[in-house]
Amino acid sequence: MDFASLSTQLLVGLSRAMILFIVCAGLSFILGVLRVPNIAHGSLYMIGAFAAYSIFTHLGSSSSGFWLALILAPLVVALVSLVAERALFCHLYQREHLMLLLFTFALMLILDDLVKITWGPEYCSVLAPNILRGSVSMFGASLPRYNLFLLIVGPLVAIFLWLFVNKTKIGKISRAAAVDREMVGAVGINVSWVFAAAFVIGCFLAGLGGALVAPTVSICLGMDHDIIIEAFLIVTIGGLGNIWGALVGSLIFGVTHSFGVLLWPQFAIVFPYAAVVIVLLLRPRGLLKSVW
Length: 292
Hints:
This protein is mainly α. The chain has one domain (3-222). It has helices at 3-34, 41-58, 63-87, 97-119, 145-167, 169-179, 181-186, 191-213, 223-238, 243-263, 270-282; strands at residues 135-138, 141-144. A two-stranded antiparallel ribbon has the order 1-2. It starts with a helix and ends in a 10-residue tail after the last helix.
């Protein structure tokens, strides 16, 4: 293992962590505002990937098709989530967490079947645009340009989400509604639509994560199962509902898995889960402050 190999694995791990963060940021935002453990979040991530594939192929698999897919696929997921929230979720916010957990699990199964009916069981793929193909040299390592693109997008999403939550009116109202829904409603604010906006934004991030991951993996049924397990572990070790905690947890998960591939490829998947166990033993409530 030379310096170049270590640098390459570190950068690849960081780029994978950015995908995890974008998905986990949406899940953490929903947890923080709505107190809903949305197991169907992974299915929305999968829909984002399949929607990106459909838009990409419909537009002739061109570079412009990729960029349009990257914009439109998360919007498709946001529309699906808005319908689900207005039809179903808005009636359940006052229920116990166990009931919400079971409900979102059932919704995940329904969405999985709808994806199978719509796109079938075949594997799909999306090509990155020409400008993001090939590799560049960084710190003596060769990094694919698309991974570098992910390293740029991840922090931008983090900054945007922080600005939205802390600097915009709807973000501040969302934080207030998470603490005291009745008081926010008493001053004349429609809390129901605030919750709807928070849910749609969180699901939009899931769709964005699916669209971004499309050029790096085979798009297939079942890709939601792995991501939702990892996402819940990440938001747990980061602190429930804490967006910056989701970023820290994603970095731990992505980097440990990447170095696991380098050190012990047959058992690479063990490394991030071992890191999760260590973190929870040392910090049972998460690395950063939980909002619950």
